[in-house]
Amino acid sequence: MKELLYVLAIVALVVVMVMRQARPRRVGGGGRRSFALPIVMVVLGVREGHLVDSHHAGVSVALLAAELLVGVLMGVGWAITSKVWREPDGSVWSRGTKATTGVWFAGFACRMAIMGLGALVGIHQSYGALLITLGVSFALRSLLLTHRAGTLSSGTLPSGAGASYGGAAAGRARKDRV
Q: Is the pTM of this model over 0.90?
């Protein structure tokens, strides 16, 4: 029963976070709130325990490190592939792109491969590592988007793919249509 609750909690947290990325959202407006859910995910993951299988400690630690690396790369990928723009009122907004969705699926595939490799060699894996990794991904994405928002000059507008990957071109500020 506990396993089912963890699966449902992880699915619910991921759905909430992904839905937040798919819609235009104000960057930096949430302050600490934008880090609340990722912090809860990390705390729950640590609290779950059993992050390392004591019977296969070396391989288990290596898989955990690989999982965390995937989480960091996904957080950076999400932040880089998100469009960021400034509205005429000075507020900064972001929205995930098709490339962001690609990063999501690539990260999911890498996680499944890591979990499959662990299962293949008989390593007991808990949901704690997945929660920690997702929390790190979401927190890093929020941190990088907040940083990108601070580097926008007034009146910048995302222009094509270039703006999705960190740059911005001068122009009339507007929000993308959804």
A: no
